[in-house]
Amino acid sequence: xxxxxxxxxxxxxxxxxxxxxxxxxxxxxxxxxxxxxxxxxxxxxxxxxxxxxxxxxxxxxxxxxxxxxxxxxxxxxxxxxxxxxxxxxxxxxxxxxxxxxxxxxxxxxxxxxxxxxxxxxxxxxxxxxxxxxxxxxxxxxxxxxxxxxxxxxxxxxxxxxxxxxxxxxxxxxxxxxxxxxxxxxxxxxxxxxxxxxxxxxxxxxxxxxxxxxxxxxxxxxxxxxxxxxxxxxxxxxxxxxxxxxxxxxxxxxxxxxxxxxxxxxxxxxxxxxxxxxxxxxxxxxxxxxxxxxxxxxxxxxxxxxxxxxxxxxxxxxxxxxxxxx
Length: 325
Ligand code: HEM
Hints:
Elements: H1 6-21, H2 36-50, H3 54-69, H4 97-113, H5 120-134, H6 168-176, H7 182-189, E1 196-198, H8 203-206, H9 221-230, E2 241-243, H10 255-259, H11 268-275, H12 280-288, H13 290-304
Antiparallel strand pairs: 1-2
Helix pairs in contact: 2-4, 2-5, 3-4, 3-5, 4-5, 7-13, 12-13
The chain binds protoporphyrin IX containing FE.
Binding site for substrate: 162
Keywords: Calcium, Disulfide bond, Heme, Hydrogen peroxide, Iron, Metal-binding, Oxidoreductase, Peroxidase, Secreted, Signal
GO molecular function: heme binding; lactoperoxidase activity; metal ion binding
């Protein structure tokens, strides 16, 4: 009798569809956009070959999308006269254009092949995974069906992204708030095996550090002197930057962790990972065993890609990644 009531029937069906909609799957676009994976793969390959800074740029962009309020491509939205968007928050101003450009290119190709079907959030998650793998890092499955956020507010970013000057407790807390253990946080930080840091991120560590030392004594002295030289003109030239992993800067490997005990960590937070008793054991494990690092990184990235995802009516398929529909 109950099921014959049309109103109730509608509610039951909607609830059922709601749960179906909110489930992510690996083959989400198999029917609606069969070329999804290929198009992203082609886009990132061309882009990374033309601009090798793309991998680092995109991985960082993904982190900065996911941590504040979920992997919903809200970091890609441009500000308007009524709204200061996430990407204009101070901490995001250093996000390189290559990351944004990669997603725009993939979105353009995907809109031609399958209009109004693929979310910018899914594109960013898969492009990141493909670039990690292309740089030599591990492959991990990315579940699909995220929808794009309808809100992007600069104020949501404050306090939700790590800064190199933060004490380790605060960095741990930021990741803990999103469900990550200390081990997962250390593994994710292994992304600093590729990419750059701008000199202004380390200038306080390099010049006039304290009365007794010109630079942070946690640095290897020769490394500090090299950085001082490389960054000499940072005030005149704010684009000056240095490799995050001085030994193998473009290869996704565990050398970043091997650098840390030698004082070759660029950012204060990198050096802090070896200096703090909570994080040091994981640095040592990952430095000694690349397979363990890759396993931990892959599973933490998969977890990161599911943080705060929007499904069903909580999101939309944006027509342009930089504008809410
Ligand atoms: C643990 C706390 C972390 C802090 C304090 C931190 C901070 C930073 C800073 C300041 C930069 C340099 C940005 C610039 O000057 O352009 C940077 C670069 C980078 N970060 Fe992190 N980060 C952290 C963790 C992570 C995690 C978990 C990931 C990814 C899973 C990540 C991925 C990257 C990448 C790939 C770059 C290079 C960007 C490029 O080459 O353009 N970072 N990070």
